């Protein structure tokens, strides 16, 4: 895999990207990940087992944000 | 200043800026494409009629009426005996009356259990698509009930949630403007007309049914099978109630002249003497019946002895029943039909008979609170039907063709939906009876008058009934299966709904214009139903029907054909007709009096001459708008002919009719004609077709007969007719633009063309239908030249540089739902039921390779590339811990979901779907994968003329031929197909586009080939591109005098090009000019969705069938391609023995099997067990081993020895049990062998190994099971 796991320095909250190789355990039990509300585009942080709905408008479809990692493919 | 309303007029122009503006600023007032919205109107309007407009459901509730149930006989047999002995009357049983007075359907909203949304509780369609749920609203009914004659009590019951059609009056987006639609994540031109069921867009197909309220004379051989003396003659009427449900009544002619009345009720057929129905309807006598049938004594009808004889017989045979008065007949009918009608036990026979007449006999003339006049109408109608039947038998009139559009109408989705809803409500009410009786038994014979009954009625009885009507409708829409106790007078039980696939917009819009003849006819061996009949002119498109099995059964509406969804106001019409001279008296002689009917009700009779005048007058009034005659009224005037259709004036004003606009010549006004009246009208197609003094109407334009899709074929009048059919098919399989709201769509598979363009050559209708919002192809520079040798047999070459610039670049979006729970994920779960959660198990160690794809929430990163077997989501098992109100994981094991497709894709977007209640953790995600598909060798393309081809090479631009101006073609196609294949048998332009020939003569072999219209398009496109203007390619605008080549040739010449469209080209390889000028121009090319990547199939080894050992079939399973008989034959003919051996044996089910040379059997060979047997002793005694080896010499020489070792295992000895005999004491130990049970045998050692197909042994076993032994002779 030619892909390097690249971490944006400013995004401190998301420590989940393991780039150490081999094994890495989860830093926290359930890190909260930010999703986008399908209705009002609000940023909704959710943890494991949280109920799925927008905290603002109560909408029931959440989008996952595009990854902050560098996405690079070989153009072949 | 008031804002200018959005312009809805479109021309052939490109209108680039105008369209850009429409895109940037979706209109706030109205759609810019009203014609497009108009095309799906029948669907929406028919649904709207259920609750608004003519309130079909309300009519249905009235038809259901009151259901009554009696409580049980509450006396023991002894009590009854004593009561009868004492002569007392039976104790009165209590009666429970129930009815539904009103049905409400709410717009889709969140359930009250959801406490989290406050601002907006509506559920919009886009949410249902994204959550893969159903767009549905709560259905409620006001249930009223009454015990004996007490007060009516009511309760509003919730009947579940029923799916709601998009953009109808129960949808939030009914009146949404394009801007509203965009804010609600819809297309700006979202049309609606479909349901969203489990995230799929489903629509109810329009179905052809018999014309309502018109008695059709029918000759059908199968009628003879109805019973003794039945003949093939019948008159059938499909009588439609105001709630759109129908009841078919048939009159059968018996060979002795008698007539019986047939109907079917709850899927059972019943026959009644027609005379009994007549006498039950009205109080009458034989003389009156005779005179209404035949005519008064002085009339001409009396001379028709054919009829008089039969009517006499009719009356005479009926004497046997000895039922004369209306009361007698009704009571008799009531007695006979009481068990099937489901009426309460205490109803009198006469009332049951009345109920029978109300429900079954011509209900279109009165189905509720039937009055005496309505009964008389029914009487008159049956008399008329008898007359028509006798005329049919006598040969005075021709049978009506049930396959002609003139005798058909359309069952609309909304109406069918209403019919099912009505039936479900009725079944629900009926179900109270048994439940109430059961309640009575459980409560120790409590009666309905008990106070406890009233208390328990709602909580115990209604509650126990199946109130979930919504579920039934959702089932209907998602499967298309009709579950119905009555059958709804329809001929099929499945196939009512289809998914409205959005492969491209043509496909999508065609679904809504599609009309199916019924799946019953698909199995029919005769092709008569598939024929294209002249009656269809202007209603069904002659071009747009698929090839193959649904040909002619699946038609599409002509683009100007409308469907009535509402009844017209015609209550004043009878009065007008009477003023015009319609009278009540009649006779059976049609040259004396002909009938005047309105919606299957006899208004009266007039002379044939008067009929003509009445028709002409009404038509003129109708078009000019005087006397309040509605313009949509169909005035079917059938003139008197010699043995033609039964004459009369038949007017139709009700819904489900097709009609279309034509110009009325008398006052140049717009007239609507229906399919029934059209065959008897003089409608000219072109100005040149006008016949002075005869023609009354003229078509607005001849292209009105084509469907939307067929209209988009440029210059279709120049093509050989099947080419246009193919184009209609292919345009619907094109990789196009399904819409602009792709981000919010969750279709299983979506095709998208990245580089769509507007065609240079297009008809003005292209803009009117707003098809530029959904581009379907690319303008390509096409050279027709044989250049590389890679363009044989409809292959084509793509310029590699064009390819690199994005020619034909496409994308597939696949949406997959990954769900954690095995059970239905859509059902809401309690907290306790959640057993799995997305995410890594707490404390589990996670490999970095999983992290490459999966984020810390256990879901994949959006944007990564995934290939087969990659892990895309992590989950772990949990248990709900009530104490901490959280989910705890015990095992600390993380499980993964994998990407299963063979083709790599990118994660385009990821949706987490919450529940409607908003209180569940993530249990399912919807992932959209993007698979880029640039054109590769083997992908399929086509022009707009049914000219498909496969890309055979991507040819480097440097080697492409070039013109004097330096132009290179994008595509090269081969001219070789031209000369022999452009055969066009009919030269009349109008006929050439219709596939009469094709469909009626299946032996006509059609070659794939060049089409003249494509050459014209090429020229027109070239000229249009050079001058920068669009070209109108509407068919029928050029003629022999004014040719298309001349028109476009002049344009080319003006641009400095050759008049004929060809130009000198230079070889890209040698740089020298070709000897011939090459025809090069601009043709609009479509990329078809059939791509090699979805089709290639290759196999060396792989899965095999467990039973036969042969490779399985099917690309998806990694199977092989069958080498069938024909392939085998050709290999034999070529003498390719080794290839044959390889295909049929080695790559299939070859195996080595032991066989006995002596008895020739596979089945009797068996392995001799080692251990106690020969081999161990052989080790002890080498001499014995040598003897054993000698005893089986065949196992020694050559390869035999090695195979023995391989197959015989350690023991190495296989023997034939059949040829062996039991070892005796005297046998040498060395010669004996032992089987698994320790029995010892001697002999049977003449066995060998052969290579055979596995199925041969299988066959042997099968035959042995039937007691047949196969014997093989083994040589060598």
From TrEMBL, chain A:
Which UniProt keywords are listed? Metal-binding, Nucleus, Zinc
For whether the record's keyword set contains Transmembrane, the answer is no
What superkingdom heads the lineage? Eukaryota
Q: Which residues form a coiled coil?
A: none
Recorded GO cellular component terms are: RNA polymerase I complex; RNA polymerase II, core complex; RNA polymerase III complex
* Classification via Pfam families: Zn_ribbon_RPAB4 (PF03604)
What is one GO biological process annotated to this record? DNA-templated transcription
Give one GO term, molecular function aspect. DNA-directed RNA polymerase activity
Q: Where in the cell is it found?
A: Nucleus
User: What does the similarity note say?
Assistant: Belongs to the archaeal Rpo12/eukaryotic RPC10 RNA polymerase subunit family.
Name of this protein? Metallothionein-I gene transcription activator
Automatic annotation (TrEMBL), chain B:
Listed A to Z, the keywords are: DNA-directed RNA polymerase, Metal-binding, Nucleotidyltransferase, Nucleus, Transcription, Transferase, Zinc, Zinc-finger
**GO cellular component terms, A-Z:** DNA-directed RNA polymerase complex; nucleolus
Q: Which Gene3D superfamilies match?
A: 2.40.50.150, 3.90.1070.20, 3.90.1100.10, DNA-directed RNA polymerase, subunit 2, domain 6, RNA polymerase alpha subunit dimerisation domain, RNA polymerase Rpb2, domain 2
- Which biological processes are named by the entry's GO terms? rRNA transcription
Q: Where is this region: Disordered?
A: 72-91
Q: Spell out the PROSITE patterns in the cross-references.
A: RNA_POL_BETA
Subcellular locations according to the entry = Nucleus, Nucleolus
Is the Transcription keyword given for this protein? yes
Task: Recall the GO molecular function terms of this protein's record.
Answer: DNA binding; DNA-directed RNA polymerase activity; ribonucleoside binding; zinc ion binding
Question: Could you tell me where the Basic and acidic residues compositional bias lies?
Answer: 77-89
Q: Which reaction does it catalyse?
A: RNA(n) + a ribonucleoside 5'-triphosphate = RNA(n+1) + diphosphate
What range(s) does the DNA-directed RNA polymerase subunit 2 hybrid-binding domain occupy? 709-983, 1010-1117
Name the top EC class: transferase
Q: What is its EC number?
A: 2.7.7.6
Query: Which ranges carry the RNA polymerase beta subunit protrusion domain?
Result: 40-431
InterPro entries membership: DNA-dir_RNA_pol_su2, DNA-dir_RNAP_su2_dom, DNA-dir_RNAP_su2_hyb_sf, RNA_pol_bsu_CS, RNA_pol_bsu_protrusion, RNA_pol_Rpb2_2, RNA_pol_Rpb2_2_sf, RNA_pol_Rpb2_3
Q: Does the keyword Metal-binding apply?
A: yes
Q: Which residues form the RNA polymerase Rpb2 domain?
A: 237-410, 499-562, 1119-1164
The DNA-directed RNA polymerase I subunit RPA2 domain sits at: 603-660
Assigned protein family: Belongs to the RNA polymerase beta chain family.
Q: What does this protein do?
A: DNA-dependent RNA polymerase catalyzes the transcription of DNA into RNA using the four ribonucleoside triphosphates as substrates.
The protein in question is named DNA-directed RNA polymerase subunit beta
Q: Where does this protein come from, organism-wise? A: Penicillium canariense
